[in-house]
Amino acid sequence: MKKQMYFNDMIFLSHGNKIIIKDKEGSKGMKYLTISELGKINYFNLYNRALRHGIHNFYKINSNIDCVIIKGKILFYENRNLINTLEINNGSRPLRKGVVYKEDYIIYSEYYGNKGREPIHVYKYNYINDKKEIVYTFNDIRHIHFIQEDINNSNYLYIGTGDLDDECGIYKFDLINHILQVIGGGSQMWRAVSLLQTNKFLYWGTDNPSGTNYIMRYNLESNRVEKLQQIDGPAYYSARAKSNEMYIATTIEDRKRHKAIIYRTLDGQNWDKYLEFKKDALHTKYFGYGLVEFINNQEELNELMYNLIGLKE
Known about the structure:
Blueprint: E1 2-7, E2 10-15, E3 18-23, E4 30-34, H1 45-51, E5 55-60, E6 65-70, E7 73-78, E8 81-87, E9 99-101, E10 105-108, E11 120-126, E12 131-138, E13 143-149, E14 156-162, E15 169-174, E16 179-185, E17 196-197, E18 201-205, E19 213-219, E20 225-231, E21 235-240, E22 246-250, E23 260-265, E24 271-279, H2 284-287, E25 291-294, E26 306-309, E27 311-312
């Protein structure tokens, strides 16, 4: 089972075509939701990995509204009844940190290869009224890696782009006035797949597949960026616990060069290797990279919860 989200003292997990619910103490899980768009074959992990099927992400927007991301679609349920389906036209899905969930709409972007460098849109989709609109368009980039809500002001979003040097950037977007502010960009130093936020700083691990990678810190007051330390391999996802410990996980894009490592910090300055994992035997071309996913709403939990994709314990 894949741990997806913590909400109201319960853990939501995905398994095959179902969402399972259980408490933190590990009680026997109960079926919460069946995804009718998926079949019984989706209980086979290798099938899902090879064809990018299965439940990629689950998010409880509130007590009544659930969002499920599968290949090519984002599904919305109210009281466990399907109310709307958003078709993804390009790529299979947004990345795990590529969607911001609001009370009656989401903000997202499509994630795909985009070799022709077509314009990349940031969309607002009202899942109650089934209405989609473009709120911003990026030109001359490959794609968007993340869209995350500013923890200090919900009217702002942080957006990360890639992949070539001049395509990499971190931006702050005003949802009310649709104004984009450049935080920084122009090199692999600004290529990130997720952000960690505190009141004063932004943190990220760089996602440079062929060069040296670092844990970065950006001071929101002085606008100063610094390299805190070098890390082994490109970083994808990150999480903060209720205790304020922060975690950044590297991925395995080249099994000959590095392991997947979770780095941890207690103070934001010093980062240590917390856990290490090796790639499984399956080829990355057909079954994907080895990566670590963190549970949604990890910031409400002291215990770190994560999923290993293509990795061995």
